[in-house]
Specification:
This protein is α/β, with parallel strands linked by helices and about 550 residues long. The protein folds into two domains: about 250 residues, Metal-dependent hydrolases (TIM Barrel); about 200 residues, no CATH class. Helix 2 crosses helix 3, helix 4 packs parallel to helix 6 and helix 12 packs antiparallel against helix 13.
Amino acid sequence: MNYLVSGNLVDVINGKITNSDLLVENGFIKSITQKDGISSNYIIPPFVDSHIHFESSMLTPSEFARTAAIHGTIGVVADPHEIANVMGVEGVRYFIEDAKKVPLKIFFGAPSCVPATDFESSGARITAKEIEELFEVDELHFLSEMMNFPGVLSGDKCVLEKINIAKKYKKVIDGHCPGLTGNNLRNYINTGITTDHETTTLEEAKEKILNGMQIQIRNGSAAKDFNQLYTLINEFPDKLMFCSDDLEPADLKKGHINLLVKKAISKGMELMKVLKVASINPIMHYNLNIGMLQVGDPADFVVVDNLTDFNVIQTYCDGKIIAENGKTKLEYHQPKIINNFNTNKITHVDLQIKLTNNKDIKESVLTNVIGITNSRIITKLEQHLLPVKNGTIMSDLENDIVKLVVHNRYKPRRKPAKAFVQGMQLKNIAIASSVAHDSHNIIAAGGDDNLICNAINTLVDAKGGMAVALYNETKILKLPIAGLMSDLSIDEVAKLKDDLENIVYQKGGCKLDAPFMTLSFLALLVIPELKLSDRGLFNVSNFTFISNEA
């Protein structure tokens, strides 16, 4: 099928804008013919998200694609790390098959860290041998983020074996090294690791860029680094990409990479450099089969109304219109249910945090507390005096210090791990989720042990989801697919999630931008500084467990 698409063509490769006719033939750009005048629309290269976990959207890849296409996204570089931690290789292949249901261009990596560390209990392990099989049999495109940077630096045999397999198959290796500097950073990069999406400051970004890394400017639902890093675009346009990492359904409905493009332009960044970051750089870095608006390329492009707002009129993928005027043309596909959930209910007694020496009569005790900041997934190791009652350390609601619990969801009769967290802003409610990076055990927080129990036990009954427990009722968003994703449409998921968060805001007094996503990262042992796994309180700075008592 042949047809023409006309508009002001934004040629990022050659740095020019021309009023042109694109002749599309059998899914490819056959020719580009310049003509006089100025068109009312603009044809721009397709947007690419350079690093995302579909699981955080609570949507399957095919359902995510339906909405992403509306916003001009054609390419997605996806790490199936979360479902792999629950289901292993079976989960990775589940994603591959689901993604085939839609024409969006989704490129999966082989998860490098399943489990992320040996200090937590996951549902599966992926070995170096299985990674080689994923490259050879399933033809995955890259080695996903190497989060175990201490393992890289110490020369861990299993870690280096995975990196060497990626090199053997000539695969790009993604990184993950928050705060890494100096010789440690250089040694990390010298193993062949090429990217980082955990960078949060200009100084950190510039050091990594000057040492050869590509920086992925992340702006997701919980971690928002754009405002700190966007000025790099004009200075290092060849060394940057945009990514979401983790994006909740309500945020995806509002926009995707297109919003970062719009925001960068509004901040005074140069058009061609911004589009290079949003499209050309990830395509070239990962060697993606996505068109860049050149003759002979796949007909992948976006038609927008102007170069300020970037309102998407049409999204073309391989010459087919997959979204138009805010409406997706991709069909909904009912997903298959797979899961790995086998745990027991708990009681409030399981949640007590006893003094290590009950012989000492104390009214308060200096306690290690996880300190959180809104829109950041990095935490602080804080120490606070907490009240003691009958030999048990209590929450301090007046100072916004509540209990944090992680309960193993893969093996029954395990006792939950407990600690304290400041900054969750939860009063009179408890929240719980089976989305808890990266092993996805049940995580919960609240100031009342009975409410925490109700929230956790609701998830045990449902075999996954997100729950809010109040004194008179418990509400749940069920996530039957691996305890991570819904089998519903994005509109249904976003509505149910909004209902839950409204309860958290209105009944609990929480003011966090993304309370459930913030909660989910409090179990992530590869992000500094203090986190909680199902095995105990963990100091990420020195990779050791510590006691609740300081």
